[in-house]
Write the structure tokens for this entry.
Amino acid sequence: MTRRAVVIGVGHYLPDRIVPNAEFEKTLDTTDEWIKSRSGIERRHFAAPGQTTSDLATEAANAALKMAGLSGNDVDAIVLATSTADLTFPSAATMVQAKISNTKGYAFDIQAVCAGFAYALTNANALIVSGQADRVLVIGAETFSRIMDWTDRSTCVLFGDGAGALLLEAQTGEGTIDDRGILSTDLNSDGSHRDLLYVDGGVSTQSTGVLKMQGQEIFKHAVEKLAQTAHTALDKVGLGADDVDWVVPHQANIRIIKSTARKLGVGMDRVIVTVQDHGNTSAASIPLALSVGVANGQIKRGDLLVTEAIGGGLAWGAVVLRW
Ligand code: ACO
């Protein structure tokens, strides 16, 4: 018998303020048409003043707990993927822990930018498989609107705020690919590409900074590396593209999503797409897409999913799981 990390709850939260592309036309030399055709994005949500990443994360966590019929103290660990934590420290995860009234567990953040949720799922899976936790809340939450250069049309139109959460529980499987839960993971990074996507602030500069990106370079790396990591994760458990019910990609750009699906050999009818409504929410984009996919009836119990993501670092990875 094999210990598996099985999803027993999922939920998401989006801030109330919806910003359509047209709003950027008032302040930037851009158009709704350009943004839509180059990225697939039509609108995004921005957090209200004073609304923090841990606030968004807490809403998503509560939604996942509610689906499972559990409360904050029923979890052993909280793993929160974010690059926009409320403060330099303590972790946003410990803030969520307090907000959901968890007094018995442990909480920590994971920072792998847009690949953060693949890293968080992999770490949560390891905690469960090794017996260090029986229930783990895995959250992706971001407020990228706080690190935008609002004069840079090539970046500020692409990102949004939001949060998504999964609740994982240790369950016993047969050790086969028919088990529910996380079946395989694949993580990678290459720090030599740090200049392609970064924030020019942080502790060493005593300022928060703004996001800088070489979009075309990131695009090229993304298509190649996302298909490669998804194939590697599937290979590890002897599965191929034909076995996949749903690809749940990081939602950065519809052109990246389509090119990666083509490389993987999966039709777009088997890809969850939310980028039009959320923009790029970095570490929150995969759990948001999972939650939306479940809510609208696309993802069903027993479906085989592969998630893949890439972000600053570069860092990238994939997770194969049976829902
Ligand atoms: N409105 C109008 N024109 C624009 C805008 C805009 N918002 N932004 C850029 N342009 C202009 C550029 O200035 C350029 O003009 P020029 O030809 O006069 O110099 C022209 O549009 C073409 O620019 P490109 O950068 O070549 O446009 P491209 O087709 O590559 O699309 C984009 C840009 C959307 C950024 C694309 O490269 C992309 O999506 N890259 C990947 C980015 C990404 O996914 N990042 C996130 C991954 S990691 C993470 O999620 C954190």
